[in-house]
Specification:
single chain, mainly alpha, about 80% helix, about 0% strand, elongated
Length: about 130
């Protein structure tokens, strides 16, 4: 895969990382508000999580659009990298590292969201 394509993917992956971290921070604040039984803050934080979610969706969409615009072999390689494949070249290293960082933050976010959702929704939680 050519360097400009890798750079473009890396830029989108960094945007995804930033959005995930914003959502994680807001979710931590939400967890604190729920623990304090502060319903007003909780409602505000829930609505504030929409912005990083929208940023995440835009970056994911741009990354998918980029993947679709690549030649078949490069598109397949980018797909593999995005699914966690190891770097095959030095140029792929930063991209694969960013994918790993994104996956770690996403895992933290999902775990914390699960806890908060169960506290808020109890038996109606989306997590079973």
């Amino acid at each position: 895969m050519e360097a400009p394509a890798l750079m473009d993917a890396h830029v989108q992956l960094k945007r995804i990382y930033t959005a995930l971290n914003e959502a994680l921070d807001l979710t931590r604040q939400l967890a604190d508000a729920v623990d304090r039984d502060d319903q007003i803050s909780a409602q505000m934080l829930i609505s504030m999580r929409q912005e990083p979610t929208d940023k995440l969706a835009r970056a994911q969409q741009a990354l998918e659009q980029q993947r679709r615009s690549l030649p078949a072999g490069d598109a397949a390689r980018l797909s593999a990298i995005l699914k966690g494949a190891e770097a095959e070249t030095a140029e792929e290293g930063p991209v694969t590292a960013q994918v790993g960082a994104n996956q770690r933050v996403l895992k933290q976010l999902v775990e914390l969201d699960r806890v908060v959702n169960r506290k808020l929704a109890r038996e109606k939680s989306i997590y079973k």
